[in-house]
Structure formats: C-alpha cells, structure tokens
C-alpha cells in the first residue's frame, strides 16, 4: 500500500511577500527533497489542503508544477505520487548530472572571483569536519556537501544550468544518501580536494572531468547499496 501524506508534515514559510502558491510549492518541494515524503509516497489533495489551509486549486497547480520538475508523477485514478525513478532512469539522471554539473565546475573555474574560491575552500573543510564527526549521519553529510555544490553553481553564473542540475539532484536524493553512506566519507573529501586543486590551477577541463568522475562514482555506490538492501 502506498503511504499518504502524514498529518503535520509540512508548513508554509510564512513569508508574506511571497504568493501563497509559491509558499506551497516551496514547502512541498522541500518536503520531497528532505525525504519527509519519500519516493512512492502518495500526496492526497484533501490532506494537503487541510495541512496548509489552501484551496484545492492551489494544491493542484502546485502538484502540476512539481510534476513538470520531475519530482511528482500524476497518474489517472491514483493522483499524485512522489516520483520513484527506475534504475534505468536513475542511471540516466546520474549521467546527465555528471555532464551538467561538470560543466558548471568548468564555468566556476573560469568565472568565479577570489571570494567565491575562498568560500569553496571553507566549504570543503566544513565537509571534512562533518565527515569526521558524522560519518554515521549521511543526511547531515549530504546537507553539508550540498552547500559546497551550491557555491559551485552560484560561482558558475549560469541560471539555466543551475536549474537543470538542481532538478536532477532532487530526483535522486534518496540514492545520493545511500551513496554517501556506502563509503568512508574521507574518500569524498579527498576527491573534492583534488577537484579544488584543479580549480585553483585554472585547469577547467580537468576540474570538470574529475567532478563528473566523482558523480558517476556516486552512482555506482548508490546502486551497490540498493543491491545490498535487496539481497
């Protein structure tokens, strides 16, 4: 049986400057990306209306928006369900992530200013610290690593590529958590530092290749975790 929306799982940000629809969209997207609603979870319109105190029309519009982002699947007679990509789809998503995020790393190397480089170095050291303190907390490790990735995206100065990359990462978040839990996180630290060396040296192509390799390595670990859980 597919689980449905748990009571009290989400709340609006309360930012009065934002339209209600945007607040609902942000709240639901965050709940999916934070895995409060896991892949396969059924999003019941009436329950969402009651939790968020919004109209059915608003909920439906937001669910359509999430479907366009690939985070939700809307099926006849089933309603909206958090998308659970097949292994083949997930593999393709990782391939696309490697290409797009690698390109963002290349652009960061070419476009980032000194202050952004300094922040990137600090983010890697923060991840290294988290790896030592929270090796058994993959969700925290992923949050810290995402801060590093967001710095890359910002410094690349490409809104279109950033939006594509963020959408793809969200669709395989559960697999990313499995991947980061499958290895000694200090290995990831070493890989990120190697990427940083290439960035500092201005070796944009090399940095992009190293990052793409890092992403595809995560795919292999995520799939290995799935095999272990099913055996």
Question: What is the rounded distance between the termini?
Answer: 22 Å
Strand order within the widest sheet? 1-3-2
CATH superfamily of the largest domain: GntR ligand-binding domain-like
SSE pattern: HEHHEEHHHHHHH
Rg over C-alpha atoms, rounded to the nearest angstrom: 19 Å
Instruction: State the low-pLDDT regions, or none.
Output: none
The total domain count is 2
Number of extended strands? 3
* Average pLDDT figure: 88
Structural class: mainly alpha
Most strands sheet: 3 strands, antiparallel
Helix content: over 70%
Would you tell me which CATH topology of the largest domain applies? Four Helix Bundle (Hemerythrin (Met), subunit A)
- In percent terms, what proportion of residues is strand? under 5%
- Helix count, DSSP H or I runs of 4 or more residues: 10
Architecture blueprint of SSEs:
Elements lengths: L19 H14 L8 E2 L1 H8 L3 H13 L3 E4 L3 E4 L4 H25 L2 H20 L4 H19 L2 H13 L1 H9 L3 H16 L3 H27 L1
Antiparallel strand pairs: 1-3, 2-3
Q: Which short descriptors sum up this protein?
A:
mainly alpha; Arc Repressor Mutant, subunit A; Four Helix Bundle (Hemerythrin (Met), subunit A); 2 domains; 10 helices; 71% helix; globular
């Amino acid at each position: 049986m597919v689980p449905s929306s748990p009571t009290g799982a989400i709340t609006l940000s309360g930012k009065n400057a934002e339209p209600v629809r945007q607040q609902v969209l942000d709240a639901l997207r965050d709940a999916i990306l934070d895995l409060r609603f896991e892949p396969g979870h059924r999003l019941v319109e009436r329950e969402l209306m009651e939790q968020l105190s919004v109209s059915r029309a608003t909920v439906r519009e937001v669910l359509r928006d999430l479907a366009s982002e690939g985070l939700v699947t809307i099926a006849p007679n089933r309603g909206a369900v958090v998308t659970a990509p097949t292994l083949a789809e997930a593999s393709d998503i990782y391939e696309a992530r490697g290409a797009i995020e690698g390109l963002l790393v290349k652009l960061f190397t070419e476009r980032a200013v000194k202050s952004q480089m300094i922040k990137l170095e600090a983010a890697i050291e923060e991840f290294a610290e988290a790896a030592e303190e929270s090796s058994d907390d993959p969700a925290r490790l992923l949050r810290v690593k995402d801060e590093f990735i967001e710095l890359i995206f910002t410094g690349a100065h490409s809104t279109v590529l950033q939006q594509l990359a963020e959408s793809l990462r969200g669709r395989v978040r559960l697999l990313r958590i499995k991947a980061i839990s499958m290895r000694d996180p200090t290995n990831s630290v070493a890989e990120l530092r190697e990427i940083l060396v290439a960035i500092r040296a201005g070796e944009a192509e090399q940095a992009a290749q190293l990052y793409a390799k890092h992403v595809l390595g995560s795919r292999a670990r995520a799939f290995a975790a799935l095999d272990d859980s099913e055996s």
